[in-house]
Amino acid sequence: MDFVTILDYIGTYAFAISGVRLAARKNFDIFGAYVVGFVTAVGGGTIRDMMLSMTPFWMLQPSYVNITAIALLTVIVFKRWVVRLEYTFFLFDAIGLGLFTVVGIDKTLGAGFPMWVAMIMGCITGAAGGMMRDIFINEIPLIFRKDIYAMACVAGGVVFWLVTLTGAHIIIAQSAAAVCVMLTRILCVHWKVNLPALKGD
């Protein structure tokens, strides 16, 4: 199992937790919560693979279905901590965002596309699943609010590119990019740094 696959599995678990957790807050039943968790975990990667003319990754092995089930069981067993703690959703969402951005970049580069395409696909992989999750639970997607969300993915893509230019090992670039996305997301929320809202007349 290579480093990117490990990141992919951890990101899947983190995003699935964030989806199931929000579904639980909305009082979804167990099946509905699983669906939201699964869509959150695989939504961005599915869009990415379809745009790259590939078979969606989760259709090639059952690991992602099983990881989402484990995430659902985690929320059920540790409901007192996972559902009630508001920070839990934010933390798992930030982790998934960072890891999936790196997975998207790596897979796109592996398919032979240039870095600028990889950066876009990294954003889609990281942010689209959360967007679909918010739509499913009838919330305005974070990516369309003032929050620094997709822009955190862009920052991670830039860091990935800059680190690779130094000739550093690919794992260092991947780790630096993931940490950059997570820290950007967490610190911007902590310091209330937002993009300016576009207001109509």
Short note summarizing the structure:
The model has no long low-confidence stretch (mean pLDDT 93).
Give descriptors for this structure.
201 residues, mainly alpha, 74% helix, globular
Write the layout of secondary structure elements.
Blueprint: H1 3-25, H2 30-51, H3 63-77, H4 79-82, H5 86-110, H6 115-136, H7 150-165, H8 170-190
Helix pairs in contact: 1-2, 1-3, 1-5, 2-3, 2-5, 2-6, 5-6, 5-7, 5-8, 6-7, 7-8
Structure, explained:
It is a single chain. With 201 residues, this protein is mostly helical. Helices cover 74% and strands 0% of the residues. The protein has 8 helices and no strands. It has helices at 3-25, 30-51, 63-77, 79-82, 86-110, 115-136, 150-165, 170-190. The termini are far apart. The model has no long low-confidence stretch (mean pLDDT 93).
Overall average residue pLDDT: 93
Order of helices and strands: HHHHHHHH
Low-pLDDT runs: none
Structural class: mainly alpha
How many β-strands, per DSSP? Answer: 0
How does the major sheet shape up? none
Percent helix range: over 70%
Termini Cα gap: 54 Å
Strand content: under 5%
Radius of gyration, rounded? 16 Å
Q: Please, how many helices?
A: 8
Please state the oligomeric state of the protein chains shown: single chain
**Outline:** globular
